[in-house]
Amino acid sequence: MITYILHINIQQQSSATIFTEMDSKHRKASSSKPYAALAISSFIVASLAAFTLQVFFFSPISPDPLHLPPPSVLPINKNLQEVIKIGEGVLKDPEDICVDEVGRIYAATRDGWIRRLHRNGSWENWKFINSHTLLGITPSMAGGILVCDTEEGLLKVDEDGAKVLVSHINGIQISFADDVIEASDGNVYCSVASTKFGLHNWYLDVLEAKPHGQLLQYNPSSMETSVVLDDLCFANGVALSMDQDYLVVCETWKFRCLKYWLKGEMKGKTEIFVDNLPGGPDNINLAPDGSFWIALIELTSRGFEFVHTSVVSKHVVATFPKLLELVRGTRKRATVVNVGADGKIVKKFEDPTGKVMSFVTSAIEFEDNLYLGSLNANFIGKLPLKSII
């Protein structure tokens, strides 16, 4: 009996001890909840602070809002889906193309080669520049071609090889030579897309929406280079008029082209040539009839236009590369327009879904065909103009 009573007492004491310990743990857990909530809140605040610092204080841009042109009223077509693929598999992202005096077609590609297509249809690996940043090209009257290399500057490439003509302006290295044209008097005009951003982060210039572009003039006789126009909005393609009395330079994120007068009463003055284009103008080339072919790029993916009107959105997109790729719409479609000497759009050709071609960057007419360069193709597009009604 005594043993039984002692056993019960021991069980009661043990139970009391267990309940006491459970109560103690409950009180400790309850008292630790405010500390856990505080820790979580602190973490959230710190994360938001870090995000804010990253986006606004370490952002690579200091943006302004950008006014986008109204939607195009021109009818949509699929003409660029009918292109013939020239040099497929031979060319890597041919950004620009040109034709020399004997009808050979040149292409500057992303693998560092200048390749040319002969009249007999054969491709030649003409010159290796050892550069992955080749952009605009144009024939030179002295033979060979002039080439824009975003890292080296303005080059002359001929049978003897490549040499740098211009690498600095006013003691500052040219970091984004974009397109080039040579006038009959020997002067060479070269666009600099941006003095702040380079080829590999060019879209930051679009997001920042501040004018960093230039138009340069190189005089081969004096070997001097001067700034013709400054504060351009991503200066891109350049072309001379039929009479070479004016020059047209494209401003990509301004959706317009400017006319700079070289001769006559307006010499030295600038005016708008064409405005509110249905895409950002890239390269421009003179057509045989005196009009101009302009390649237009889709700067913004559909549905993300709001980004350009919001400074906050621009900071966020510029800080995160995956968001930037999502907003950038260059690989979504292809568009080229033919603009008359009066600055009015005459024709528009498209691949509205990018089914065959997208990111078309240049268009040049030669022998009733339109040849198209692209930064998203392994070929040159050839569009027979007579087949389009």
Question: Describe it for me?
Answer:
With 389 residues, the chain is an alpha+beta fold. Helix content is 20%, strand content 37%. It has 4 helices and 26 strands. The protein has helices at 2-57, 203-208, 311-319, 321-327; strands at 84-86, 96-99, 105-108, 113-117, 123-128, 134-139, 145-149, 153-158, 161-166, 168-169, 172-173, 177-182, 188-192, 213-219, 224-232, 235-240, 246-251, 256-261, 270-274, 280-286, 292-297, 334-339, 345-351, 360-366, 369-374, 380-384. Strands 1-26-25-24 form a 4-stranded antiparallel beta sheet, with no helix packed on it. A hairpin with a 2-residue loop joins strand 10 and strand 11 (172-173). Helix 3 crosses helix 4 (321-327). The longest helix is centred in the first third of the chain and has 56 residues, at 2-57. It is globular, with a radius of gyration of 31 Å. Residues 1-22 and 46-50 have low confidence and may be disordered.
Please tell me what the overall shape is: globular
Strand share of the residues? 35-45%
N to C succession of SSEs: HEEEEEEEEEEEEEHEEEEEEEEHHEEEEE
Count of helices? 4
The low-confidence parts are: 1-22, 46-50
Count all strands and give the number.
26
**How large, in whole angstroms, is the Cα Rg?**
31 Å
Structure classification: alpha+beta
Q: Average pLDDT across residues?
A: 90
What level of helicity do the residues show? 10-25%
Strand order of the largest sheet: 1-26-25-24
Q: Between the first and last Cα atoms, what is the distance in angstroms?
A: 116 Å
The biggest beta sheet is recorded as:
4 strands, antiparallel
